[in-house]
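The following record pairs a protein chain with its ligand, zinc ion.
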Amino acid sequence: MEELPVSVTMTDAKATAQAWIDDHLGELSAFHQQIFGHAESAWREYRSAADYVELLRREGFDVEAGSGEMPTAFAARWGSGGPVLGGYAEYDAVPGNSQRSVPYRAPRSGLHPWAPGHTDPHSALGVGALCGVLAAKHAMERHRIPGTLVFFGEPAEKVCGSKPVHAAKGYYDHLDAAISYHPMLTNTTIWDTQCGSYWSCVFTFECFDPPWGRPELLATPGRVHTIPRSPGALDAVCLMYTTTKFTKENMFPHTGTWTMNEYLMVGGLATSDNLTPPISQIQYSWRSPDLGIQEQLFGVLENNARHVAAVTNCEVRVRWVTKTRVGLTNHVMAQLAYRNLELVGPPAFGDEAREFAREIQRACDVAAMEDPFTAEAQVVTDPEEEDERFRQALPAWQKNFTSDDYVEYTWHAPTVRLYTAKPSLREPAGWAHWANNALNGLPAAIDPTWTTAGRTVANTFLDLLTEPAVLAAAKAEFEDRTGGGVGGERWVAPLLARDFAPPVDLPWPEYVDTVRGHEWVLPTPGPAGFGERI
Ligand SMILES: [Zn+2]
């Protein structure tokens, strides 16, 4: 790595921040449990966002709740003058991943077994970033360090939802630097291979004019049930699904990694009749390393949708969910955060976490190990080494890989992508999703992950606030890579319009309150369960 213009050491201000974290571990851990327990999915994180807003207001932040026309987003601000440093929390969970913090497979009780759960986990992501910002704030107060901290609530990361919207609406303008944190498999920062692009849209098929046959040709023309119905919206969505499976391999050569997934948003309306299903909705999400590829993939989808609509007597509309850019790296920021991560050291998973993990191994019929956690989760890894290892699976031309909407920050201010390791099980048993989710909810296992992040974030913010040379170097690199900063010749503008309507009104799954109680949008199964296994 190149030399930073400052040496990264444990200053008095950083020591103050670290001591604040030590003193507030209990409260922060309880807050993490609260968010983990809400387990709300994309665009529906009402309780989680409200908890963050309340906590930040109590801490003296000026909070805009519902920022960017997104009910579960927020923008919180504290301090005055420059530099202006940004960070954020995510808090969306993933449907189908419900799991209690127990060392065997058990979805949360009282809900549909396929209710959401925290996988990444974004619960720890948010609390790690929060921990760093609050600790930095405390040190700024104690040491009279000027500057402004901006902390965003970023919902719906699982559909790359809010950050392209915040970016398009100008929320990241005036940031001097930003830290993006995510729990991962190693402790490091991204060096070169930032995330690629994620686009998503919903096709809605509507059948306005059934039937399409000629009723007068039938023997009993007045009888509704004998009239041939139009194929309609359910057939449209089935054909869209199938047609797209057939065309997928021709959308773009499979020389680099790209993926496309679909999600049936509306398709049934549940009562079978001879009437034509009037509406269906299917969401497509696709990831690739390049914006040109993204356009190409959409072109095929759009073509398929038009043809399918014609075949099924439907009209079709497209509504965009999101469009992200690809990530722009910043070596100064990557190095600064990494040096601070080194100062903090990797997460240490203690006896309680290890014993819990061994119980998981027994539940998976795997011999219990003395140290059930991976080696790479328990050391810090040099970002360049990590990048080299990561790139071994990629073609040389491919600059970006996978997706996450943090990339939106990278085009508005020098940004680092920081990883700390979650409690990851050694193979075999590492594959068990429920085990990963169970560990994410056990304080003894997950708290070391996000506290390591919080400590690193606080230290990095304090260096950026007190060492003008390092911030200047990060900004010079940003200017250079964008060809002149925001608006520069190599700068990429937000892909959504400033007046983009966030897709919060689409039928995303959510928790509901009914006469049956508080439950997942899929009703909690009664004693009959899902019927007989066949
Ligand atoms: Zn994530």
